[in-house]
Amino acid sequence: MHRFWKRRFERQIPLYDEGLLSDSQRRRFERELAKNEPLADALRRYGRLMGTVKRLQPVYPPRAKWEQFLPTLHRRIEETDMEQPSGWYAQLIRRLYNRLHSPAAPRPRWIEKAAFGLAGAALGAAAAFYIGQILPVQNGSDAPLSQERQIEQPAEQTAAGGAAFEEPIVEDYGGPHHLIADPSRE
Amino acid sequence: MKPPDHYLVQQFKNGDKSAFDVLTERHYKRIYDYAYYQTRNVDDSYDIAQEVFFRAFKSLHNFKGNSTFYTWIYQIARNACVDYYRRRSSRPTVELTEEMINQENISTMRQPERRPDSIVLGKELEEQIRAAVSQLPEKQRQVFILRHFEGLSLQEIATVMDRSLGTIKAHLHHSTRKVWKLLEPYLSDKPVRKGG
User: Fold this and answer.
1) Helical residues (DSSP H) of chain A, grouped into ranges
2) For residue range B116-146, what is the model confidence (pLDDT) as tens digits?
3) B75 vs A52: CB contact, 8 Å cut-off?
4) How does DSSP classify residue A21?
5) Phi and psi for A67 in degrees, rounded to 5?
6) CA gyration radius for chain B?
7) DSSP-assigned states of every residue in B148-170
8) How far apart are CA B20 and CA B8, in angstroms?
9) 3-class SS at B175?
């Protein structure tokens, strides 16, 4: 038999053992099995291995420790209950946290983490851009736009009136909030 | 007659804390087994099993019953094992690749001049199986353990791992094939060649 076909049938042994082959694949495999002694031998070896795998037993802790499993768990639960605040609001927060953070929920995969990080960065950049647009700061000047307007507004008004056009603007603590007439003009 | 798990869960939700003790006694051995096959360490497995039931106690009120209790507890155990491996991520690990398992001589797995027949049922083969399983990539290892050691059905494994049935089948196929490739020399009737 060509080596390609030999390897292909050998690769199907775990699938055949698990019953994962389709009907047509299974029939082809069994036809091959009937006439191919090395394949039958490989299937026997696989069966021996899986038999050994299923007989494997874990190593257990000493009996005394093993029997203390439940009392140890009780102690830990009681200690945690004593540590936590017992008010109704604390219980509510704890319940909400447990509802949102299920211990059985699958851990995020790296791609999910990466996607979440990228989305967060994009959102942050968009927020920064938007805030930059609405904040009253222009051209790198330290003076807020709203204050500049406050400066210009009285000057225009006085210019239109024609009377107090030359009156200086006195700034106090970085922004004009009142106008004082020049005493020398009086 | 033993009360079923879902009945005990309901009892717990109604305020009967002793129902959780019954659930724990019923399932902690299998969770310990699962953790042991993952970690191969008695103390770590015991601690993981404790952590699993502690988390389960804290969250059982929110268990909706969409799956069986024991698949839910396996989900917590899987996460606890993932956390365990993340904590120990500094430990150097070797992941098996196709090239590695196709190598003619895997020095750590083969003992030259040994008759396979003499060790097939021995402790050494068992240890080699555990070593081979522990070298599998994480997902494949979990599927292998849940299927072959814990005896869960493929559908149950898909629920535990939150993956499709097809993905689980693929993981199982790859993991089983890798383990088989690694251990085949021990099962062969021919003696293992020295030095490949």
Assistant:
1) 3-11, 13-18, 23-35, 37-55, 63-67, 69-83, 88-100, 110-134, 145-161
2) 454 445 677 788 888 889 889 988 999 999 9
3) no
4) S
5) -75, -15
6) 19
7) IIS---HHHHHHHHT--HHHHHH
8) 7
9) helix
Higher pLDDT, A5 or A148: A5
Q: What is the ipTM of this complex?
A: 0.72
Half-sphere exposure of A175 (CA within 13 A, CB side): 10
The pair of structure tokens assigned to A159 is 């210019």
> How buried is residue B18: exposed, middle or buried, by Cβ count under 10 Å (0-12/13-18/19+)?
exposed
With beta carbons less than 8 A apart as the criterion, state whether B177 and A14 touch. yes
- Say if CB B95 and CB B134 are below 8 A apart: no
CB pairs under 8 A between A and B: 109
**B82 in contact with chain A, both atoms CB, cutoff 8 A:** yes
Residues 6+ apart with CB under 8 A from B124: B111
What distance in Å separates residue A48's CA from the closest CA in chain B?
8
